[in-house]
Inverse folding.
């Protein structure tokens, strides 16, 4: 239970006090009425004695009474009505609310911190009023009248006669059978005569003389002269006298008829009084029937019609009609005790003392003695006899506990003089004067008697008071018998069906248990008495039980909250809305945020409802808001109800302040960090063969890898534009800002270009939400960048479409538990700073999914796709938390977040805007296929653009043609195939002979040191004017690897007029190309052994080209035709074809073709005239059409493949030698085996598609670097290195060998033997056959070479002997020569044969070393092939 102002030791004596009746004459009542008080009310503040009182008990022991209080009340002859009592209690509770600004106790239990009001004044007021308003009953005498004050005025004509009349009246009321009410303690009631004297108006002498007369007649102990009204009421304002009555009268004013409609409304209309006064005690001043007093209804009397139930336990259907506030207002003008001075206060106090000392207590003492004597005398004989006979006939004593077994005899009534009742009377008297020992023994005796008689009502009363007496006994000789109370409560409730008495038991017992810290038992007791018959009582008891749970040693927090909820529910049923709301709010502290979501929803819903009823609209809104924003586990129907209730309450709130700021709405959820901002127009859809550049759009997913690639491309092109340096002010262009982009700077938007904000909504409910009139909320600061700022802030509410145009989405439906994005646009029309604050919309829900079937909506009516049930206008802010900072030590140790400025763009001046369209752009190509497409560049802005460049990581994929390229003409003979190549018709005689042309790589934008990835777009006049468009041809070549390729193009352009904020703009395009297999080309080059022809020195080469058709009829390819093989080199060129295949280079699926070409060095003059970057192109054609390989697009793609090949890292020689000369030697040796010959194979593919034949064309490149080494047209997969065993010892430091490889050394000297293929010799004439043979030694290097030719025949392998037979060289067996740079030397040798046969002449061994080298890099110079000679006999 909650803490109380009074302890239980003070509460119980104050609840049971001696009752004294007051009977006043008309005149006496008038005197007290001058103070706006009745006589009983006049005495009320002074009814507690200020000093201790002594009396003697029956054993003549002195007994001390402390803090004795007496209750004086006017005689009322009607018992109080139960309905009126209920009404009174209801008003008392509703009138007592927690004080404003009261500091609540903070209780910490486990992980709960609860703010709980420690005291419950409404419960104390209820308890006090309940105990005071209990009607007197026959089974107990505690609230029966012990004495009666008879009050007359000294102004009476015959005061003594008036006293006689009053005395007779009291006698009549007590002893006449017509009056069953009020109840009197004993027949011989003490009468105390009081003479009231008005000092300000009366005659004091007369008063004194009357008093003397009274003393003569009634004795000094039985009368008193009370002087009051020392001043007149009109002087009341002169000095302030304290008003001790207000606290008592406030309670009785609640009881007053004003607070309920049905009560008797009595208004005094006294001619003497200066105003109409409320009769506060239910009495008026009019004399009726000649009697000095008229005893009408009790002030708690209700009309019979208004309350059909006569039991006090009826349901609380009497609602409080007017609040306490109004009652107070009615009484504020009245000053109580206006005619009384402080001396008068003391006189009244003295009067009470005198009455108690001289009248009441002696009377009580005498009565106790009399009752005691009676009991002793009776106990001696009759009691013992009576009980003996009873025992004889009835057997043993009835046990106390088994009450349920007794038959219901609560109806048994004792006559007033019954001895059992005398014991009870004596016990009650002892209890009233705090003689608890004696009271306990009397109650105990009475209890036994009542139980023996099975008078259950009496027995329960005795048990109840015995328990209380036992508890209050000084020195606590025995423990508190709680089982007595339990038995009493059970009896009252179950047998006697008297809930009022049961409730009193519970209230007293719970207080006693609380004082002993037995909270658990107290709570159980309180909960036991909650029932359906009284909501108010149940609510109060449940609330106290909840306080018991929280005040335990280890607080039971959840039990506290649960019982608070129950209490709140019962308060609500009893019409106590404020108390109900308070209970729910206190319980909410426990359930909040602990995962009890359904309980939370219930509490919030109730709080919302109650707050709304009490017009606390803000609280209601916040409670309903909580139901909606927590992840609700309610059913869809329930959520729909919550939402409708919320909208309804919200609407009422917004109507109170229609012009106020827009409120924040709780639904739908907005994931602020997922907000994306896009600057620019939406991408145009593909239009026929026209396909717009993909650029950036909100439909693309963020990919960190690709965004890094785009950044690198932009950096590359910016570096080229700025002569190789990226400016410090450069930041990558960001068109789409999201949570991954760098949002630390203010983004730049261009005026007249839309800004799209994508807001991510989520509907957490199971009911759909309909947002209408959804738009962005912004503020804008127009800035004139010329210097002067006009700082006017324009909000959306003022609506400035001239500054910023705002798109409104009329309807946006989010289905249940759906996440959905809305894209909202702004159109800036002015430069300045824009701040996007949030979204504004009407929130509603759908009545039912009504579809409008093709009927156009009427203008001005809301007939969209959905019918809106109710909606409220509000806003939600977009607040994005920036990234966590983690750079400095301070930032790492604390939690700091950087700014996120994606919603604060700066609107800058106009910029050009480029759109790029691709026409006839393929999606599928064969590897190496060439296709011609067109690109259209359109300037859609109002500014001219210039400096257009394109950059790509795959420059070998496309070309715009060379600088000097004339647009490709169509060859007349190739009308069936619109070739992408520049072709020339040739006559058939030139077949297999090379046609020579030359071109410089500079013409194709591939200069030395330039970035091959960055390509300038050849715009006419280099400027694209506003609204202009240009179409340029673009050749594409399918990548060499099959599969899907994503190729990124980044177009870069600038404004003609330089802008301070934006230097350039970019446009992105990603082309997706799927390539299928076509041809695989592999080639090798080797030295020719044939004799040099007159074309020049330096030797010839043979080029072997293998072409394989790897296409397995993919993409419908029937066959490939090799139409031309071209070479391109600075030093070499193809001369002619050695073996044109019979099939003219036609390859069906999986077929291979082999070609062999002769290559010769270019003439020196050809090479010397031009720059080193000039390449010679030689075309060998297999048809009647020459493709000019030195023109676009063939040369473009050749150069691009060359540059990408050059970019690959080359294996560098390790040059760790001491002498510089060695390095030179190595270089020279290496150069011998190098060749820079590039082969371009041009082909056509015949494709059948939809029963039509198409001809595709393409080219493959093979780059030959080294003699004898095979090269490929397609990238080779690198084998992963094999795993090596771990070595656990340190390898010795071996010097890196600087020897060149055997292959390289063997290429220093080229050898060739010249001899007749067959030789006829008459062996029968001459047995030895001598054949002259010329050995040509050609120095391939540019240095002098020492050569040793060894002719000694040393064939070790027997196979060689078998195959080739044996012959002998004649003459010198070893020659030593020195060959100058590129010199050719011939040695004349003779071979000697003795048989006919086939012989291999390639036996001479040639060793070579560089002349200036000390170290001999000596190696055998290998022969290319066997030199076979046939010797015939003639």
């Amino acid at each position: 239970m909650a803490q109380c102002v009074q302890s239980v030791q003070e509460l119980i004596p104050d609840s049971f006090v001696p009752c004294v009746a007051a009977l006043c004459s008309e005149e006496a009542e008038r005197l007290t009425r001058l103070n706006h008080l009745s006589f009983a009310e006049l005495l009320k503040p002074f009814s507690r004695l200020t000093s201790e009182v002594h009396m003697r008990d029956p054993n003549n022991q002195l007994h001390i009474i402390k803090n004795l209080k007496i209750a004086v009340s006017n005689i009322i002859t009607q018992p109080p009505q139960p309905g009126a009592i209920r009404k009174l209690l209801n008003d008392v509770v509703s009138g007592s609310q927690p004080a404003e600004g009261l500091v609540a106790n903070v209780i910490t239990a486990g992980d709960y911190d609860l703010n709980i009001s420690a005291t419950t004044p409404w419960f104390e007021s209820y308890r006090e009023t309940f105990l005071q308003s209990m009607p007197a009953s026959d089974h107990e005498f505690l609230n029966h009248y012990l004495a009666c004050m008879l009050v007359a005025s000294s102004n009476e004509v015959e005061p003594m006669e008036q006293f006689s009349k009053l005395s007779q009246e009291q006698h009549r009321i007590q002893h006449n059978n017509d009056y069953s009410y009020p109840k009197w303690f004993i027949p011989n009631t003490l009468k105390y005569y009081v003479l009231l004297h008005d000092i300000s108006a009366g005659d004091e002498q007369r008063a004194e003389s009357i008093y003397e007369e009274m003393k003569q007649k009634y004795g000094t102990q039985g009368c008193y002269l009370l002087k009051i009204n020392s001043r007149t009421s009109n002087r009341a304002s002169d000095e302030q006298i304290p008003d001790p009555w207000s606290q008592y009268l406030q309670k009785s004013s609640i009881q007053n008829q004003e607070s309920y409609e049905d009560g008797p409304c009595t208004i005094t209309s006294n001619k003497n009084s200066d105003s109409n006064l409320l009769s506060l005690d239910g009495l008026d001043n009019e004399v009726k029937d000649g009697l000095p007093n008229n005893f009408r209804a009790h002030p708690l009397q209700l009309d019979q019609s208004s309350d059909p139930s006569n039991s006090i336990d009826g349901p609380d259907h009497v609602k409080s009609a007017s609040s306490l506030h109004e009652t107070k207002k009615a009484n504020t003008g009245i000053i109580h005790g206006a005619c009384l001075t402080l001396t008068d206060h003391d006189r009244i106090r003295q009067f009470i003392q005198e009455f108690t000392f001289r009248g009441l207590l002696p009377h009580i003492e005498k009565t106790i003695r009399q009752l005691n004597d009676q009991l002793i005398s009776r106990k001696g004989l009759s009691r013992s006899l009576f009980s003996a006979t009873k025992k004889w006939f009835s057997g043993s004593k009835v046990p106390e506990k088994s009450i349920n077994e007794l038959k219901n005899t609560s109806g048994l009534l004792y006559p007033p003089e019954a001895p059992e009742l005398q014991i009870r009377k004596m016990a009650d008297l002892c209890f009233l004067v705090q003689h608890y020992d004696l009271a306990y023994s009397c109650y105990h005796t009475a209890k036994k008697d009542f139980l023996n008689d099975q008078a259950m009502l009496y027995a329960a009363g005795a048990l109840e008071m015995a328990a209380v007496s036992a508890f209050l006994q000084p020195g606590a000789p025995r423990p508190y018998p709680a089982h007595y109370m339990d038995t009493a409560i059970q009896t009252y409730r179950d047998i006697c069906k008297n809930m009022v008495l049961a409730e009193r038991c519970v209230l007293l017992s719970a207080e006693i248990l609380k004082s002993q810290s037995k909270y658990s038992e107290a709570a159980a007791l309180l909960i036991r008495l909650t029932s359906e018959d009284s909501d108010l009582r149940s609510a109060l008891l449940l609330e106290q039980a909840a306080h018991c749970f929280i005040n335990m040693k280890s607080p039971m927090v959840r039990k506290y909250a649960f019982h608070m909820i129950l209490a709140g529910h019962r308060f609500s049923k009893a019409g106590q809305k404020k108390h109900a709301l308070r209970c729910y709010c206190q319980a909410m502290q426990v359930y909040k945020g602990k995962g009890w979501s359904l309980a939370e929803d219930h509490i919030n819903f109730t709080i919302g409802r109650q707050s709304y009823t009490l017009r606390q609209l803000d609280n209601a809104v916040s409670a309903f808001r909580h139901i909606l924003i927590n992840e609700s586990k309610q059913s869809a129907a329930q959520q729909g109800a919550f939402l409708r209730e919320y909208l309804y309450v919200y609407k009422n709130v917004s109507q109170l302040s229609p012009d106020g700021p827009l409120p924040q709405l709780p639904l739908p959820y907005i994931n602020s960090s997922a907000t994306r901002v896009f600057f620019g127009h939406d991408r145009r859809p593909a239009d026929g063969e026209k396909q717009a550049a993909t650029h950036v759009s909100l439909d693309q997913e963020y990919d960190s890898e690709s965004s890094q690639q785009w950044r690198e491309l932009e950096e590359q092109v910016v570096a080229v534009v700025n002569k190789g340096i990226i400016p410090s002010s450069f930041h990558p262009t960001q068109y789409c800002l999201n949570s991954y982009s760098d949002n630390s700077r203010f983004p730049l938007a261009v005026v007249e270009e839309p800004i799209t904000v994508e807001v991510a909504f989520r509907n957490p409910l199971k009911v759909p939400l309909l947002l209408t009139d959804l738009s962005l909320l912004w503020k804008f600061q127009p800035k004139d960048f010329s210097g002067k700022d006009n700082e006017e802030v324009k909000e959306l509410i003022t609506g400035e479409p001239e500054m910023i145009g705002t798109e409104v989405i009329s309807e946006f439906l989010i289905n249940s538990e759906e996440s959905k994005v809305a894209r909202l646009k702004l159109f800036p029309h002015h430069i300045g700073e824009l701040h996007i604050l949030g979204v504004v919309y009407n929130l509603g829900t759908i009545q039912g999914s009504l579809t409008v079937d093709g009927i156009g909506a009427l203008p001005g009516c809301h007939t969209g796709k959905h019918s809106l049930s109710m909606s409220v206008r509000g806003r939600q802010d977009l607040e994005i938390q920036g990234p966590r900072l983690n750079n400095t030590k301070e930032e790492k140790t604390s939690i700091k977040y950087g700014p996120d400025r994606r919603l604060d763009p700066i609107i800058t001046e106009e910029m050009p805007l480029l759109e790029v369209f691709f026409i006839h752009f393929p999606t599928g190509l064969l590897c190496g296929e060439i296709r011609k497409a067109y690109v259209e560049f359109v300037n859609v802005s109002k500014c001219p653009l210039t400096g257009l460049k394109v950059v790509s990581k795959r420059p070998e994929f496309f070309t715009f043609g060379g600088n000097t390229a004339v647009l490709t003409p169509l060859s007349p003979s190739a009308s069936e195939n619109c070739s992408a190549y520049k072709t020339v018709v040739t006559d058939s005689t030139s077949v297999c002979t090379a046609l020579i042309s030359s071109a410089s790589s500079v013409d194709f934008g591939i200069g030395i040191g330039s970035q091959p990835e960055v390509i300038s777009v050849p715009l006419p006049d280099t400027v694209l004017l506003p609204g202009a468009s240009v179409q340029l041809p673009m050749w594409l070549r399918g990548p060499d690897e099959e599969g899907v390729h994503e190729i990124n193009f980044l177009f870069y352009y600038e404004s003609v007029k330089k802008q301070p904020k934006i230097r350039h703009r970019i446009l992105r395009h990603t082309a997706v190309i799927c390539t299928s297999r076509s041809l695989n080309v592999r080639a090798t080059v080797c030295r020719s052994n044939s004799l040099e022809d007159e074309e020049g020195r330096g030797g010839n080469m043979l080029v072997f080209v293998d072409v394989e058709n790897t296409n397995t009829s993919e993409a419908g390819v029937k066959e490939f035709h090799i139409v031309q093989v071209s070479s391109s080199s600075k030093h070499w060129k193809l001369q002619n074809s050695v073996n044109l295949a019979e099939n003219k280079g036609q390859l069906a699926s999986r077929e291979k073709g082999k070609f062999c070409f002769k290559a010769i060095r270019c003439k020196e003059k050809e090479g010397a005239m031009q720059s080193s970057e000039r390449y010679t192109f030689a075309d060998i054609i297999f048809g009647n059409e020459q493709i000019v390989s030195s023109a676009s697009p063939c040369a473009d793609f050749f150069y691009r493949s060359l540059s990408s090949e050059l970019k690959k890292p080359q294996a560098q020689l390790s040059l760790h030698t001491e002498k510089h000369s060695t390095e030179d030697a190595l270089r020279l040796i290496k150069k011998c085996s190098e060749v820079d010959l590039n082969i371009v194979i041009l082909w056509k593919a015949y494709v059948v598609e939809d029963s039509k034949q198409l001809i595709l064309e393409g080219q493959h490149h093979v780059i030959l670097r080294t003699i004898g080494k095979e090269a490929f047209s397609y990238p080779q997969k690198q084998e992963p290195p094999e795993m090596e065993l771990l070595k656990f010892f340190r390898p010795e430091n071996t010097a890196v060998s600087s020897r060149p490889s055997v292959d390289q050394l063997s290429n220093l000297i080229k050898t060739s033997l010249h001899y007749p293929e067959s030789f006829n010799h008459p062996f029968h004439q001459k047995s030895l056959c001598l054949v002259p043979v010329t050995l040509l030694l050609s120095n391939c290097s540019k240095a002098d070479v020492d050569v040793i030719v060894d002719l000694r025949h040393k064939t070790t392998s027997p196979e060689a002997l078998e195959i080739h037979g044996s012959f002998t060289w004649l003459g010198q067996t070893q020659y030593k020569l020195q060959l100058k740079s590129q010199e050719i030397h011939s040695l004349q040798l003779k071979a000697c044969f003795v048989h006919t046969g086939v012989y291999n002449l390639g036996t001479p061994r040639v060793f070579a070393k560089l002349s200036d080298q000390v170290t001999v890099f000596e190696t055998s110079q290998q022969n290319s092939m066997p030199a076979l000679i046939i010797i015939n006999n003639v």
